[in-house]
Amino acid sequence: MDIRLTALHWVYLAFIVFILAILVRRRDTTLICVAGIFTLGLIATETLNGAVSGIFNSFIYATKELLGTIFIISIIVAMSRVLIITGINETMVRPLTRFLRTPAQAFWGIGFIMLVASLFFWPSPGVALIGAVLLPVAGRVGLPALGAAMAMNLFGHGIALSGDYIIQGAPKLTADAAGLPVSLVMEASVPLVIVMGAVTTVIAYWMMRRDQKKGTWRDGLVGKGGGGGLPAEALSGVIRSGAMLPTGLKRVVAVIIGLLFVADVGAMFAFKLQGGDATALIGGTAVLILIGVTMLAHRNRGLEETTSYLIEGFQFGFRVFGPVIPIAAFFYLGDAGFTAMFGEQALQGSNGIVNDLGVALANTVPMNGAVAAATLTATGAITGLDGSGFSGISLVGSIAHMFSLSVGGNATLTALGQVAAIWVGGGTLIPWALIPAAAICGVSPFELARRNLKPVLIGLVVTTVVAMFLI
């Protein structure tokens, strides 16, 4: 199949390379993405008006595509906030602490609890939900604060977020960019997430115990307050000063919340809910829990406090996704977003910029599964260097789609790029993305990043090799 590449294709490709170069230097790519949208619009419409309007319209398009993800995260954060203020989160987690009696049990127990919490609440809210209760327990049994931070970080921001099987924010972004159903990307990611998680956490725990025995372990503490953050003891004080509920009522509410989310999971399997339908079910449940708990805790102030919690949640959501929107807007132009913005006349006879580049690549560049897998891992890791695992996964989805036209394995390549991007940028290696776990544990985010570096890099290598055999 012969594809005629035009100026639009080459400009789009040039901006992708430029964006990668900027990411390597750990600089923000928003301006470059806006410049790319403007340039593509100028070439496509041949009018200044069309190019300028295209910037705003592309932002609207990207926001519409991301709106469900932004909303679910915002609502989950709002619900998490009221659970923390009322102390219900402490009630939910306390029964699990009886099983944490040794450093090993504390490390793996905190990790798996964080994994489950992060699948439903996302890692940052999950850290706040369980950190205040589990960190003091870990300290009593001999697990240092940095070890607890590693466990929460690797299991939450690593394993849970890279799969994101419940909220489905990450697979939605990569699947859309790769032109695949969300369910296909999630299915392909399962073996990769398992391998990456197992290798990374086992090596991290082994290195921690080795250094403790050799006397070379550093706790990485930054003093009371966690360098400006809220360690567990301080957070507990905040909770006690909030709107508390009677102990018996907290227990009842905690059980009801658990049962509601278990029912959601059961409904997903029973009615085969995936993607937006599954997200809507979780989001609606979270809103009902938020309203119910707020009314119980604040009573006469319940109406106003419900709005306040929602505002806090949406502030968090848009703060997190604000940098993602212009980046996603640019990469959506590689597929259906282009014709939605500038019409079909500029790409007549084309299947989309990314598709055309993929076909051209397949026709001209020698490519095999090993090279494609290594490239996707490297690309995902590079896009994560800005500290936001989500800002680059649209790119890895597009590149996976291009390579798959030559070597196949679109879903596996897409999932591999997603795993690499989230593990590096989602909060396990970049210091400014590690702040939630570091702050709650009162340790240095730079020391936490240093401890994670070798385990994560080894895990990426092993996972890439496994992906080569799955393509």
From TrEMBL:
Protein's UniProt keywords contain Protease: no
Keywords annotated in UniProt: Membrane, Transmembrane, Transmembrane helix
Superkingdom per UniProt: Bacteria
Keyword check for Transmembrane: yes
Transmembrane segment boundaries: 6-24, 31-60, 66-85, 106-135, 188-208, 252-272, 278-297, 309-333, 420-441, 453-470
Descriptive protein name: Transporter
